[in-house]
Amino acid sequence: MSELVADRISVAFAGLKALSEVDLKVASGQIVGLMGPNGAGKTTLVNVLTGFQPPTAGAVLLDGAPLSGPKPHLLRRRGIARTFQGGRLFRDLLVIDNLEVTGIGLGQSRSAAIAEARAMLDWVGIAHLANRIAGTLPYTDERRVAIGRALMGRPAFILLDEPAAGMSGQEAADLSALIRRIAREMGCGVLLIEHNVGLVLDLCDHIVVLDSGAVIETGDPAFIRASEKVRHAYMGTAADTHMPVLEVGQ
Amino acid sequence: MGSLLQVVFDALALGSLYALAALGIALIFGVMRLVNFAHGDVIAFCVFALLWPSTDAVAVVFAGNLPWFLLIPLVLAVGAALSVLSELVVFRRFRRANPATMMIASFALGFVIRYFLLMLYSSRPKSISLLPALSQPIEIFGARIPLLQLITILVTIAVLFGLTAFLRRTRFGLEMRAAAENFTMARMLGVRANRVIMGAFALSGALAGAIALILGSQTGTANITMGANVMLMAFIATVIGGMGSLAGAVIAGFLLGSIATVMQVILPPDARAFRDAFVYGAVILVLIFRPQGLLSARGAKERV
């Protein structure tokens, strides 16, 4: 059982507070949702957790021990993987190569990297795409490749940055089934950033809502769904209406 | 028939030279977004490495007298070593600099190398006899083709196949292709960035060595500016080919070689002196119709 914790994380860019004293916790096998309007600081928090952005204050703890300053690829080796908005695959490489090079980067031998890459493509359900050039895939498949790539080396945690953006209802439902398997079958801790609120409420065990860099609400999906503060954050002051954003993708 | 074949061989040989040089530039551009203008001076350095430093007009050969099976690896190694050294000493410090800054640094490095040669060897071209056995002609279907031309073409084809196999089949090649497309991402995934970049410089330098051997044998002179013209053509080839695209650089290199050779044949004798003007005119036309290059560059494709 492993635990990744953001402990009172603050980030300031040139005096502008992007995050202030944000707490968050993801445990093995758990799916935690990170919600919030555009500019709330969601990606910044993921950047801090994966070593891309040093926090101005606060600490990231892995199993209680602080991770201070290691480079992203070292954190990746320690089991904290992520995906990026839009997938960001190596578009000129084959799908299998995208996973293989990740395995190699993790220190695997070439044959081990190829073997795991094949198994992983099969596991995420795109074994038939192994020899396609990554840049030619439709983007629902591209996202799966990105997730497969992040799962190479069986990380303890995976941070998914808007994996369902631009997907139709059915595609999002398929993706959501995959994310659930990552948590339940691999025992991976999942942090899910997603604008599709319906998907987050449906999938997550626990949800953290950010607004303007601060946590405004945290709790289980039912609690978040009913929260007045969350409604305010998404709707401004027009609190008398129901939350139309909640219906996206439902 | 004979003369047509002659033109084809001329075009292929000149194109080979440009293609090899363009490949050396595209390899480094791929992993670092650096247009290495010092490449031409590395070529010159490789030839001069065979001569004993002296400012006399007559070259004092020392390593140049080695048998070919030692001479060739030596020149390739000199190119690779100088190129890797330039990465370690200069370009490593510019990793985060913008491409224009790196380009200026490469110009400066090129001049440092050139003036270093000037100091040791003077600016007078020296006549050398490098691999003299290659200058004899052989007869193919009635055309008299210099053996060197044939070897240049064959070596280039072998290099292209070898490099393709290296990039596609080896672990290092895979890391290099990933880094060439998205260096930051490759690094984040743990690809060993320094090794990949040094590998690209070593390959590029060895290619410069190969060009030095061809140019040296072809012209029979060592001249401190001998790399400049090839470098300019190679740079143009990488631009036309689509910056960073290896295949594009090679195709454009052959294209430029062909255009130059054909111009030499079809232009009226009075206009031949201005051949290069016509070649550059053709370059402008290509860029007007395909500003992104013949093959669009790696990593430049963004989904809108």
Automatic annotation (TrEMBL), chain A:
Keywords (A to Z) from UniProt: ATP-binding, Nucleotide-binding, Transport
Highest taxon listed in the record's lineage: Bacteria
GO molecular function, one term: L-isoleucine transmembrane transporter activity
Keyword ATP-binding: yes
SMART domains: AAA (SM00382)
A single cellular component GO annotation: plasma membrane
High-level lineage: Bacteria, Pseudomonadati, Pseudomonadota, Alphaproteobacteria, Rhodobacterales
GO biological process, alphabetically ordered: D-alanine transmembrane transport; L-alanine transport; L-isoleucine import across plasma membrane; L-valine import across plasma membrane
InterPro entries: AAA+_ATPase, ABC_AA/LPS_Transport, ABC_transporter-like_ATP-bd, P-loop_NTPase
Signal peptide (from-to): none
Protein's name in the database: ABC transporter ATP-binding protein
Pfam families hit by this protein: ABC_tran
Domain ABC transporter: 4-237
UniProtKB/TrEMBL annotation, chain B:
Compartments where found: Cell membrane
One of the record's GO molecular function terms: transmembrane transporter activity
Keywords: Amino-acid transport, Cell membrane, Membrane, Transmembrane, Transmembrane helix, Transport
Pfam family membership, one: BPD_transp_2
Membrane topology label: Multi-pass membrane protein
Single GO cellular component term: plasma membrane
Bilayer-spanning residue ranges: 12-35, 42-62, 68-90, 102-121, 141-167, 196-215, 278-297
Family to which this protein belongs: Belongs to the binding-protein-dependent transport system permease family. LivHM subfamily.
Protein's UniProt name: Branched-chain amino acid ABC transporter permease
UniProt keyword annotation of Iron present: no
This protein's record includes keyword RNA-binding: no
GO BP terms: amino acid transport
Protein species of origin: Fuscibacter oryzae
